[in-house]
Write a structure and sequence with these properties.
Layout lengths: L24 H4 L3 H12 L2 E6 L2 E6 L2 H10 L11 H5 L13 H17 L13 H24 L4 H18 L8 H7 L2 H8 L4 H4 L9 H27 L8 H14 L9 H5 L1 H26 L1 H14 L15 H14 L8 E2 L4 E3 L2 E3 L4 E4 L1 H5 L26 H4 L15 H18 E5 L22 E5 L2
Parallel strand pairs: 2-6
Antiparallel strand pairs: 1-2, 3-6, 4-5, 7-8
Helix pairs in contact: 6-7, 6-19, 7-14, 9-11, 14-15, 14-16, 14-19
The structure holds protoporphyrin IX containing FE.
The site of protoporphyrin IX containing FE has 25 residues, from helix 5, helix 14 and helix 19.
Cofactor: heme
Family: Belongs to the cytochrome P450 family.
Membrane topology: Peripheral membrane protein
Length: 485
């Protein structure tokens, strides 16, 4: 209501006129990635909407995103204080909390280093290039067997249901040093209900912006609280077990390495870090949560696209058959030999844009972007979907055409074009699991494509309409697969 004074030389943000109380909620609708992209055509790459009474700045266009998140990274690196973010992991999340920049930065550095040590550091795992490769190869081979036996018994399967357990086992291996059976009910209940979490955490959840909605009965918010509690209890139990069996001389996994960091810090009197032990160990919650939902969503989409584009599936299989053969499991070192698979994954990321917006950002001080004034503490939505479908960058942006990323002779991926695809954010808040995410999607997919031929099942049509959320998922479906010789 109290409009901040605009400094001289700067302009007021353009945008649609808000309606009292609800703001622009009706125009934003159920698919904000589509409506906010359409608004960008009208108002430009920096504009303001209101969700309820709260102003939100929406950024699109690759140049504007680079300007805000890289060149003016400090100004846009905050997270807004939203109701659902406060509920998530008791407000101790690294990715979603409003931690002051020093605390956030220290935790982010710790998370990055712990994650690296137990995933991609070279030469730490017998016979494999890294621990991550070992986990994925074993889980991938197991997934092929599992899907074949479900096919034999039932004649079809729900891809997400099985992929999510395999992917979760990889991150569980790194975080907790353990894996779960594909029929483990506790894990199934936890990971198969992640849809509600995505729906609540996606940009534009009304209960975050219109306070009275929090007090009305709301199925999604109820489910979100329930899964959140279940998730925290699940991780807490494992963390407690780690504390009781902790041995400084044998750091088994990420949880141990975070506990060890707390112990070391107590000995180091010069340490000036002001982060509680609880907040350090809670980092494992973020790594576990981010590590299974994003990658299983990507892989499940990949399998659905293989079924929707059967000729392309055959081309990908042929590439694997010719360049890797059928006698051994594909490895990370095969990647340069598989440009078509690489291009397929990049186009999958672009076309699905299954993370349509980054996690919402927030300005850390009064700032200006493209000549428009943006006050401190303004919530900012970053529209990745718009960049990935921008007709000024992509020819026929709505066609699924992996070859757009290949060099004319088909032997190499065009890196300049590939880098324009937005899925992991950029700048200070860029995803810390990007390398792991890309490796997992590539290797799991190579293993599946080598051994299985996926197909539609009569009576089960494919519905590829995404369901909006932080991660957009396809509707649950039934597919078939044949084992290849
Ligand atoms: C943040 C995408 C996998 C950990 C993010 C963000 C995006 C993203 C868009 C928000 C960036 C922003 O707010 O500007 C993805 C995708 C993945 C993936 C598409 C897989 C295909 C992972 C994995 C991990 C991870 C495997 C860890 C094991 C994180 C963390 C943050 C984050 C901790 C918060 C960073 C911060 O707030 O400083 N990711 N992610 N992600 N991601 Fe990922």
């Amino acid at each position: 209501l109290l409009r901040p004074k605009i400094p001289e030389g700067l302009q007021q943000l353009p945008g649609p006129k808000p309606v009292p109380i609800i703001g622009n909620v009706l125009e934003v609708g159920r698919n904000p990635h589509l409506s906010l992209t359409a608004m960008a055509e009208h108002y430009g790459s920096v504009y303001q909407i209101h969700i309820g009474m709260r102003p939100v700045v929406v950024l699109s266009g690759i140049k504007t995103l680079r300007q805000a998140l890289i060149r003016q990274g400090e100004d846009f690196a905050g997270r807004p204080d939203l109701h659902s973010f406060r509920l998530l992991l008791d407000g101790k999340s690294l990715a979603f909390s409003t931690d002051l920049s020093g605390v956030w930065y220290t935790r982010r550095k710790l998370a990055t280093s712990a994650l690296r040590s137990f995933s991609i550091v070279k030469g730490s795992s017998a016979g494999y290039s890294c621990i991550l490769e070992e986990h994925i190869c074993k889980e991938g081979e197991y997934l092929v067997k599992q899907l074949s036996s479900v096919m034999e018994a039932e004649g079809h399967f729900d891809p997400f249901r099985y992929i999510v357990i395999s992917v979760t086992n990889v991150i569980c291996g790194m975080c907790f040093g353990r894996r779960y059976h594909h029929d483990d009910q506790e894990l199934l209940n936890l990971v198969n209900m992640s849809d509600e979490v995505g729906r609540v955490l996606g940009s534009g959840n009304l209960a975050d912006f219109i306070p009275f909605l929090r007090f009305l009965p709301n199925h999604t918010m109820k489910a979100f609280r329930e899964i959140n509690d279940r998730f925290t209890t699940f991780v807490q139990k494992i963390v407690m077990e780690h504390y009781t069996t902790f041995n400084k001389k044998n750091i088994r996994d990420i949880t141990d390495s975070l506990i060890n960091h707390c112990e070391d810090r107590k000995v180091d009197e010069n340490s000036n870090i002001q982060v509680s032990d609880e907040k350090i160990v809670a980092i494992v919650n973020d790594l576990f949560g981010a590590g299974f939902d994003t990658i299983s969503t990507a892989l499940s989409w990949a399998v659905v696209y293989l079924v929707a584009y059967p000729e392309f599936q055959e081309k990908l299989h042929q590439e694997l058959r010719e360049r890797v053969g059928m006698d051994r499991t594909p490895r990370l070192s095969d990647k340069p030999k598989l440009p078509l698979l690489d291009a397929f994954i990049i186009e999958l990321f672009r076309h699905t844009s299954f993370l349509p917006f980054t996690i919402p950002h927030c300005t850390t001080k009064d700032t200006a972007l493209n000549g428009f004034f943006i006050p401190k503490d303004t919530c900012v939505f970053i529209n990745q979907w718009q960049v990935n479908h921008d007709p000024t960058i992509w020819k026929e942006p709505f066609s699924f055409y992996p070859e757009r990323f290949l060099s004319p002779d088909g032997t190499e991926v065009n890196k300049v074009m590939a880098e324009k695809v937005q899925l992991f954010g950029m700048g200070k808040r860029r995803c810390i699991g990007e390398t792991i995410g890309r490796i997992e999607v590539f290797l799991f997919l190579a293993i599946l494509l080598q051994r299985l031929q996926f197909h539609k099942v009569p009576g089960h049509p494919l519905d590829m309409t995404p369901e909006y959320g932080l991660t957009m998922k396809h509707k649950r479906c039934q597919l078939g697969a044949l084992l290849r010789e």
